[in-house]
Design a protein that fits this description.
By secondary structure, this protein is mainly α. The chain contains twelve helices and two strands.
Length: 336
């Protein structure tokens, strides 16, 4: 008879092993795997996570009972940079940039403008004879000739004429690069106004230079008439070229008066009523400015400069009235 154990279970016969049922075997394997996974998890529990998610994965404390999947779901996803940009700024293309990035963009656009002028200057140097002939024509019509007093001055004359032609031809490129640099800071509603202002400024600048060139023969004849009969007129070609350049650029800058008044009206500093009330003072200042700019004292040359400026002043008043009316319409539409 077999002896019973205190617990009441029969002992297996010596030399024989009890066979495990298939279910028990599978449960044992599962238990072993679970034990291994638990031991593996226990080994890696104390180690910090590795890889790109290491900086974003939160650490679990000793008493944490959250599963790994829930912890991964709680990992904060970094917001996209575009979400931090103001929608209005994104619409006009104004992306936040560092100071170094702004300076880098300014440098690149400055180099493009400088390279454009340099290339145009080299191309103009080939036609420097024709350019000098056009510049000297108002003086040569008096029957006199320009004089060169040193060896290198002939080369410097060609170089100055080529540089002047390069700047005048490449000036639209310079304005375009400046526009591309500042356009992201201009609102979408004001960009049409800004574009029209730039185009009008270019047109008035070239109009002033053209008008100056047309008035040069009268100015030169009037100036030469002051030379006494017992003296010989010997004009240095370099000084004449400098005089023509400064005279043209000064008149071209003065012709920007309507653009300046238009911008000041847009900002709100000047109103049409102010321009109308100060018309008589403006006329006196225009004639004084014409007397300072023109190299002669004859009234004909001063009139050729002053009358277009007076016309531009009246055009500025008209433009200012239109801008004020449009501004009031926008304010009424916004209030409604």
């Amino acid at each position: 008879m077999s002896k019973k154990t205190p617990s009441g279970a029969e002992k297996p016969a010596p030399g024989k092993r009890r066979k495990k049922s298939p279910a028990a075997a599978s449960s044992g394997k599962t238990a072993t795997k679970r034990g291994e996974s638990k031991s593996g998890a226990a080994k890696t529990a104390g180690k910090p996570p590795r890889g790109p998610k290491a900086a974003l994965a939160p650490r679990r404390g000793k008493g944490s009972t959250l599963p790994a999947k829930s912890l991964e779901a709680m990992v904060p996803v970094p917001a996209a940079e575009d979400n931090d940009i103001d929608p209005v700024a994104r619409e006009r293309g104004d992306i936040p940039m560092s100071l170094v990035a702004h300076l880098d963009e300014f440098r690149s656009r400055f180099l493009v403008s400088l390279l454009t002028i340099f290339i145009l200057m080299l191309a103009s140097f080939v036609f420097s004879d024709y350019i000098l002939a056009v510049i000297n024509r108002p003086y040569l019509e008096t029957g006199l000739k320009l004089n060169v007093f040193n060896l290198i001055e002939g080369f410097l004359l060609r170089l100055k004429a080529s540089m002047l032609a390069g700047v005048l031809i490449g000036f639209p490129v310079i304005v375009y690069e400046i526009w591309k640099y500042i356009s992201p800071a201009i609102s979408v509603d004001d960009r049409t106004f800004a574009r029209l202002s730039v185009v009008a400024a270019l047109f008035l600048f070239y109009l002033g230079i053209t008008l100056t060139y047309l008035t040069l023969p009268f100015a030169i004849k009037a100036l030469i008439s002051f030379t006494p009969d017992d003296m010989t007129t010997l004009i240095n070609a370099g000084q004449y070229l400098n005089f023509v350049m400064l005279f043209c650029l000064a008149i071209g800058a003065v012709f920007e008066l309507p653009i300046v008044i238009m911008i000041l009206t847009k900002i709100g500093i000047i109103t049409p009523s102010f321009l109308i009330s100060k018309r008589k003072y403006a006329i006196v200042l225009i004639w004084i400015l014409a007397a300072v700019i023109t190299p002669t004292v004859d009234p004909l040359t001063q009139s050729l400069v002053a009358l277009p400026l007076m016309l531009l002043y009246e055009i500025s008043i008209f433009i200012s009235k239109i801008m004020v009316k449009r501004k009031k319409r926008k304010e009424l539409a916004a209030s409604q």
